[in-house]
Amino acid sequence: MTIRNAASMGLHGSTWNTRGYCGQGQVAELIGSLAGRSALVCGNAAGVFAEVEQALSLVTSPVIFAVNDVGMYLPHVDHWVSLHTDKLGTWRSVRWAEHTQKESTQYHSDAARPFVDWTWQQLTPQFCLSGYFAMQVAWIMGCEHIVLCGCPGDATPRFFEAQARESFGYGSHDRGSDRAVREQLQYEMARLPDFKAAVRSMSGWTQSYFGGLEEG
Fold first, then answer.
1. Using H for helix, E for strand and C for coil, what is the string for 68-137?
2. Which of 22, 95, 139, 206 is the most buried (most CB within 10 A)?
């Protein structure tokens, strides 16, 4: 299993260390800044918009984390997170062109660009998918409850696809790097059980793994 910036690397060179993670970059002031808050991490799977609507009816005043493409279309975005740094700049431009409501969205990635507000350098360890990376960021920022919307962790098509990609199933395919995605998630949640206990999911394999969001 390949783990990006494995935990075995220790704290060498890190400028911050919290909740089981460490790293570099100008993010120290973000650490714990959302303590006690709830977050919705909104991914790209089909059904994400309905899942966000349902979650908003059950969670009081959550912080909205958008992941990749979906950030162009969500009604409100507090934090926009992606490991596809250059694409994030394009997606940001689309939202600015089409979204008339004023907002103060913060942009996060693991690589520095002029349009990135917060650069999570050498996050140790770091998930390899943007959705799980966004979940990490929410956890490191102090969120106590994290709800995954449109992050089923399986081969559900993305919201802009008629059919799921054959080449990648977010861990549901028993081969190579695809399998390693799920293995990494399970390893990290076993290492940090408090992190796992904070997460719920609205659908898919991640719902069976983390548990769903209870109504009432």
1. HHHHHCCCCCCEEECCCHHHHHHHHHHHHHHCCCCCCCEEEECCCCCCCCEECEEEECECCCHHHHHHHH
2. 206
